[in-house]
Amino acid sequence: MAMLKALVVDDASFVRDLVKRTIRQRFPVIETTDAQNGRRAQSLMSRTTFDLILCDWEMPEMSGIELLQWMRQQPQYEKTPFIMITSRGDKDHVIEAVKEGASEYLGKPFSPEGLSKKIIKVMGRTLTAAMDRSGKSMAGPTDAFKESAALLTQKREPVPSAASSPPSPEGSRPAVTKGSMSLASIRFAESTLKSVVKDINLTEVRVIAKRDQVFPGILDQAVVDIETGDGQMARLNGYVHQLQAVDKRRDTDFVSVTIRFVDEDPKKLEDLSRFVARFRAGQR
């Protein structure tokens, strides 16, 4: 029986489902509720008290940082753990989130293990006590519970300061255009894929990559970084929809990867539209 309540906030239903599934499988004492943006989350939080908030940064109507600012002004949420889950990993955004009261920061795309460790870290003994009361052992069958005892007895890491280095996607590079060819680096939880954009629209992007790289699995999370043309960066969340050999032979040197976008933020769709227009113009 669930004893703790968590609120999952993200404009992409695919991401919300991933977070909820991880919590359900690894932390059965936590009941999850979800919201598609900060405004909806604010409404839910005003009616129900949650023990944990897991929230995206970029969302329509009310962003994650705005929700965090409001939350820390509410007496019942002054000390509630808040995990910012976002594709923004640059130093300025990490510092801003920490200053506003974020308990932890998790970059997209994330693995179930990475998410579990963050939850264990911010929930601490509250989670341990709930597991004990339910008759569950923190040394249970899942990897998250096996790791929890060590994590809870480790010295707590200091909150990042302005002088500390932020977590950043290793090897990530935005999609850029060279002549008529658009290069792209697509981030996954454990790797970054260097590729060439073959086609893109408001729904998905298809890229070609050399076979000698580490490839993701079907339905794995992905983040596609693109330059919008005005010096700004758009980070588009998606998942692997299709993997296919380019040549009809087993020893093909190239693989086609299709990433389907899941963001519903109008600003991100506007940025994507500008990139698509530039891509189409470059193909003429």
UniProtKB/TrEMBL annotation:
Coiled-coil regions, chain positions: none
Which key words are in the record?
Phosphoprotein
Compositional bias of kind Low complexity: 159-175
Which InterPro entries does this chain map to?
A: CheY-like_superfamily, Sig_transdc_resp-reg_receiver, ST_Response_Regulator
Q: Which GO terms describe its biological process?
A: phosphorelay signal transduction system
Tell me which Pfam families the record gives. Answer: Response_reg
Q: Where is this region: Disordered?
A: 155-177
Question: Per its UniProt entry, which superkingdom is the organism in?
Answer: Bacteria
4-aspartylphosphate PTM positions: 56
Q: Response regulatory domain: from which residue to which, for each copy?
A: 5-123
Question: Which PANTHER family does the annotation name?
Answer: TWO-COMPONENT RESPONSE REGULATOR, TWO-COMPONENT RESPONSE REGULATOR ARR22
Name recorded for this polypeptide: Response regulator receiver domain-containing protein
Q: Which organism is it from?
A: Marinobacter antarcticus
